[in-house]
């Protein structure tokens, strides 16, 4: 296929995507790392991604070892420094517009960077399956702790602070490997998937379960399934519309 043919095919698919979104009344937008790479947030699984440099620290190791907690916070603040100033990109803004226009009922995200909320998606329309890395929380009483406070103590003493409310362990408010998925968030996401007339997968490799089962649930319930991602996914054969490419380019002006 020639470059002109490729361009025409891309234009046709984008037009088809636009028609599906305009016709939707209860769309669910499901996002992964590919939505935020255009904002300078590195992904995890691709060559050169975060896992190739630092394997994730398992939750049990964080919980049981002070050394692992120190290392987790060291990595956290190093990453925050590297991504400081990241702002919503064209894909985030397009998703926020879908919600604002009433096309999308909810945004379900695997991302922890807070950029959906920063783009204008209301908190009550946002389901963060893997938590939020813009603040910390006590593992016991769930009291919120701001990262500036945690960092000040960590840099002064070398140790992260205990919870100021109950004395429990304070951790970034994200879901680590080995940590239970948030039950309420998963229940909300599953219910939204079953009620959707359109399920948009944007920038997810669809390999992390149980989140990756949501598109299947939506499809079985009768929703049209769209997958837009740089790389192939295992669910591509089930998609009603498949787009390959950079999401900032797909949703940009």
Automatic annotation (TrEMBL):
E.C. numbers: 2.3.1.286
NAD as UniProt keyword: yes
Pfam family, one: SIR2
Residue intervals of the Deacetylase sirtuin-type domain: 7-253
EC category: transferase
Keyword entries, A-Z: Metal-binding, NAD, Transferase, Zinc
SUPFAM superfamilies: DHS-like NAD/FAD-binding domain
Positions annotated to bind Zn(2+): 138, 141, 163, 166
The protein's name in its UniProt record: protein acetyllysine N-acetyltransferase
Species of origin: Chenggangzhangella methanolivorans
Lineage, highest ranks first: Bacteria, Pseudomonadati, Pseudomonadota, Alphaproteobacteria, Hyphomicrobiales
């Amino acid at each position: 296929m020639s470059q002109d043919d490729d361009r025409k095919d891309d234009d046709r698919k984008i037009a088809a995507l636009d028609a599906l979104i305009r016709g939707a009344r209860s769309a669910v937008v499901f996002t992964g790392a590919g939505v935020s790479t255009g904002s300078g947030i590195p992904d995890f699984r691709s060559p050169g991604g975060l896992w190739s440099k630092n394997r994730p620290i398992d939750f049990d190791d964080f919980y049981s070892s002070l050394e692992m907690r120190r290392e987790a916070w060291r990595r956290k603040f190093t990453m925050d420094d590297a991504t400081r100033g990241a702002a919503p990109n064209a894909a985030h803004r397009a998703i926020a517009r879908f919600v604002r226009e009433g096309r999308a009922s909810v945004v379900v995200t695997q991302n922890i960077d807070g950029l959906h909320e920063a783009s204008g998606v209301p908190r009550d329309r946002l389901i963060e399956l893997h938590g939020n890395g813009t603040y910390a929380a006590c593992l016991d009483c769930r009291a919120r702790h701001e990262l500036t406070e945690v960092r000040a103590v960590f840099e002064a003493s070398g140790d992260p602070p205990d919870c100021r409310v109950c004395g429990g362990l304070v951790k970034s408010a994200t879901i680590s490997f080995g940590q239970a998925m948030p039950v309420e968030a998963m229940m909300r996401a599953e219910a939204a998937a079953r009620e959707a007339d359109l399920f948009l997968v944007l920038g997810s490799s669809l390999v992390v379960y149980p989140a990756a089962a949501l598109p299947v649930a939506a499809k079985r319930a009768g929703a049209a399934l769209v997958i837009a991602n740089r790389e192939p996914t295992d669910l591509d054969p089930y998609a009603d519309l498949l787009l390959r490419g950079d999401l900032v380019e797909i949703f940009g002006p």
